Amino acid sequence: MPLHRAAPAPPDDDAGVEIRPQFAQAGETGIVPKLRLPDGELAAETAYQVVHDELLLDGHARLNLATFVTTWMEPQARVLIDECLDKNMIDKDEYPQTAELERRCVNMLAALWGSESTGGDATGCSTTGSSEACMLGGLALKWRWRERRRAAGKATDRPNLVMGANVQVCWEKFCRYWDVDPRLVPVSPEATHLTAEGAASHCDENTIGVVAILGSTFDGSYEPVAEIAAALDALQARSGLDVPLHVDAASGGFVAPFLDPDLAWDFRLARVQSINASGHKYGLVYPGVGWAVWRDKEALPADLIFDVDYLGGQMPTFALNFSRGGAQVVAQYYNLIRLGREGYRRVQQASRETAMWLAGEIGKLGEYRLLSDGGELPVFAFAVADEACGFSVYDVSEKLRIRGWIVPAYPMPTGMEDVSVLRVCVRNGFSRDLASIFLEDLKLATERLRHRAEGPPPDAVRASFHH
To answer: Residues near 287 by Cβ (< 8 Å), separated by ≥ 6?
Structure first.
C-alpha cells in the first residue's frame, strides 16, 4: 500500500495533472502526464530537461544546514561512484573486489573503534545507512537476550530497550517493528540526553540492552558512554543483571576517534557489544551507506546470519536489504585511504572550529541562547532567549529560507518539549566564509522579525535583506 496521499482522479483531458514543457522540436509531444505513463516516448534530451527543470525547485544541498548527510565529495570519488553504479553489493561472487573493499572497511572501522586485533576477520557489514545498522544491532541484542532467558527457563515475551528520549526515530521504529517496549528516559535542561543514572534506573530483567548516542541529533552532544557503562557494571554487581550496551555513533563514530582520541566510548569499554555509524554523514560519503560492527563473533547470534546461494556462490548475509548498489562502499574505502587519520582529523577539526565560532557569535547576539556549542559534534542548537520577543524559532527558519538557508526548527524531546530550537549542522564544505554569510543573514532576519513585532520595518532593513 503506497504511503503517498491519493490524488483525485484526473479529468479526461488531464487538465492540471500534466507537464507542458515549452519545447518545440519536431515530432515531440507538448504534454506529458504526471500520474500515468505517457503513451509515447520522449527524446532523452527532452526527458532530462523536464526532470532537471523540476528539480530546480529543490533546496540547494550545500545550504542545507538541517542535514547531517554529506553534500560534497572530491571529483575523483564521484568518478568512482559513477564507475560502480551498476554493481550490486549482494552479488559478491560476481563482484569479489567490491566485497573485498567492504571487508577492508569493516576491519578498518573495527580497529578505529577500539577493537582488539581481528586478523582481518572483524564482524560487521555495510548497510544502506545507520537506520538499517541500528535495526541489526537491536536484533542482535534481542536475540542474545532471548537465548539467555530461554536457557534460564524464563519468559521471553516482554523485552524492553532503554534509551534517552532524544534517540533518532529509527530506534522507535525498531521497537515497534520487532515488538520491543521502548523505555524512553526523559531529558531535562540540565541533561539534554541520557545519563548514567537514568539508564541504570530503567533497566530490569527484560532489558535487552541500553542505547547510548555518540552525537545527539537534537543538539550534537555526546552521551556519557563510559559513565553509562560504569553504571551498568555497578548494576550487575549488585543485582546480577548483565545489560549490554549498543553505541549509536551515527555521526560521532567518524568524529570522536580523530578529535577526541582519549574519549572512551567504543570497544575499549567491555560492555559495548556493537556500534553503528553512518558513512554518509561525517564519514564524508554521499548517501547512502552505513556500518554495523560487533565486538566479536559471539556478539552476533548465528541465527541472524543467512548462507545464501546467489548467482553461483555461497555467501553469508545479515543485512536487512538484499540488492543494493556497491558504489557508496567503494567511495567509503576511497575516503579511508585518501584521508587516513590525519586527513579525517583535519576535515573534522575544521568543521568543529567553524561550528564553535558560529555558535559563539550567535550567542553574542542577545536574542538567542545556546543549548550546545559545537564542541562535540560540529552541530549546535539554539533557542530564542526571550519568548516574549514577538517571534519564534519557526519565524526565524522561515525568514532564512528567503536567502536559501535551510535551518530546521523543532521542539526538544520529552522532558523539554516546551523548548523549541534551531539546529545548525556544520559539514565538510561549509566554510568559515559561508558561516560568516549565514551569520549576517541571521542578524538581518532577526532584525526584521524584531521590527515586525514592533511595527513596519525600516526601508533600509527591507532593502538590505532582499539584496
So the answer is: 69, 70, 129, 280, 328
